[in-house]
Every structure is written in C-alpha cells, then in structure tokens.
C-alpha cells in the first residue's frame, strides 16, 4: 500500500472519529480562558470565546468534509450523466451541452456560488449546492473530453463493428477505461469543493457560526489574528493538509 494512502486514511480517521480524540467540548465557551496560547491543557490554544481550537478543528473537519463531499456529488453525478448522454446521442445533445458550458463558464465560479446562495439563503445545504453548481461545468468539460477521446479508440470501432449499441459501448467499454482519469479529477473536484465551501463560510454564508467548521473558524480567527494567530492557523493548516493529501491521491490514481 502506498504511503500517501496510509497517511490519508489516518488523517480521515482522525477527523471522522473526532469525539474519540478531542479533549474538550468544541462548543463550550469559557470566559476565563479567552485567547489562551497553545499549551498542555489546550493543544492549539483557545479562540475569542474561550473554546478549544484543537477540538473545534477536529469537529470542524467533519462538517467541512460532509459539505464538500455533498458538493462534489452535486457537481460530478449530473456532469458524468450528461457526458455519457452526449456520447450516446451526439447529434441531439452536443449543441445543448456546448451552449450550457459556454454560458456557465462565462461567469466566475465564486459569482455562481454567490448567486445560488442569494436564491437559497445561508446554511450548510445551500453552501453545498452552491459549491457543487460552481464546479459542475468543469467536471462536465473534462469528462466530455475524456469520453470523446476514448470514443476514437480502436476498441470502440471494434465494438461497433460487432453491433454493440452506443449505450453498451459507453457502459462496458469507455467508462471502465476512463475511470482512472475520471476518478482522479473527481478527487481534484473534491479538493476544490473544500476550498470553495470554506471560502463561502469565511464570508459568513455557512450558517450558524457556533457550529465548528473550518471556514467559520477562519472567519472568527481573522478578527483576533494579531493577538491569537493560532485560532486561524489551525483550520488553515487543516484545510491545506486535506487538499494536499487529496491531490496526492488523485495523482496516484491518475
């Protein structure tokens, strides 16, 4: 097993089993321990409300990963389905998908996310939907190109000469051969979803600020950064580690 897989698994276990590793209640405030520096009692220090940053970082990872995973599914599944339909019936769907991509990619992804949140309101579900919508056209563009590239291979020509239908060729031939690349880019999409969902939470659009979330922690730590930089550094480092590990995994899959 590759070292990157082991490290990523351990990091994921640390986040998913946050109740076992956390040392304090992540939501409990303590006015006597406001902005305490990292020490034996608080490994990563405390924030501006006296909450333990280490525990909030672990619990915040659960929420951030859940929102980002949901956003990745919202981006990947419809895009993959449209890419498959485009290859199955190119004449009917290609013009529609081309117009859709040109229109969607004409706007910055952050603007699309902000417009979606303006319509849906604040909260983790709207953030997941907005982040997924913002990443949808990129995955559609990549998967569409991969399907078109694989469609020109000799094994597709051989399958057609044997009378296989387009849908059969996509499911049984093209999709299995394209899976490594599609999986690798899915990991990259997931990493982008983590960054973008944290950015939206940083802007105050992630819902209840008392619930641990890496983006919300960055927002609260920003106000007291000069006095207590650890409150913002901990979630920032956690986001960086997660994105790096996901990108390394994506590279290994590719």
Model description:
With 254 residues, the chain is mainly alpha-helical. It has one domain: MetI-like (MetI-like fold, Orthogonal Bundle). 74% of the residues lie in helices and 0% in strands. The chain contains 10 helices and no strands. Helix 3 runs antiparallel to helix 4, helix 6 packs antiparallel against helix 8 and helix 8 runs parallel beside helix 9. The longest helix has 37 residues.
How big a fraction of the residues is strand? under 5%
Q: Give the biggest beta sheet.
A: none
Whole-number total of structural domains: 1
Structural class category = mainly alpha
- Number of helices, where a helix is a run of at least 4 consecutive DSSP H or I residues: 10
Mean pLDDT: 88
In CATH, the architecture is Orthogonal Bundle
Integer-rounded radius of gyration: 22 Å
- Measure the end-to-end span: 16 Å
Instruction: Categorize the overall geometry.
Output: elongated
């Amino acid at each position: 097993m590759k070292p990157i897989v082991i490290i990523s698994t351990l990091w994921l276990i640390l986040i998913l089993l946050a109740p076992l590793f956390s040392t304090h209640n992540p939501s409990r405030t303590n006015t006597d321990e406001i902005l305490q520096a990292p020490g034996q009692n608080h490994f990563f220090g405390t924030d501006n409300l006296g909450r333990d940053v280490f525990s909030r970082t672990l619990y915040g990872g659960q929420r951030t990963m859940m929102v980002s995973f949901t956003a990745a599914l919202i981006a990947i599944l419809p895009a993959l389905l449209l890419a498959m339909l485009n290859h199955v019936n190119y004449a009917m769907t290609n013009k529609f998908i081309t117009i859709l991509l040109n229109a969607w990619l004409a706007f910055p992804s952050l603007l699309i996310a902000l417009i979606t949140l303006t319509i849906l309101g604040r909260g983790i579900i709207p953030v997941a939907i907005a982040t997924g919508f913002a990443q949808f056209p990129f995955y559609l563009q990549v998967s569409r190109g991969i399907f078109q590239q694989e469609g020109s291979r000799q094994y597709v020509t051989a399958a057609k000469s044997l009378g296989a239908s387009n849908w059969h060729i996509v499911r049984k031939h093209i999709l299995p051969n394209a899976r490594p690349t599609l999986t690798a880019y899915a990991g990259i999409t997931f990493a982008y979803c983590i960054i973008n969902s944290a950015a939206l939470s940083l802007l105050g659009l992630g819902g209840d600020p008392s619930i641990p979330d890496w983006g919300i922690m960055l927002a609260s730590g920003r106000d007291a950064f000069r006095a207590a930089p650890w409150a913002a550094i901990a979630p920032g480092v956690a986001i960086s580690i997660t994105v790096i590990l996901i990108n390394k995994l994506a590279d290994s899959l590719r």
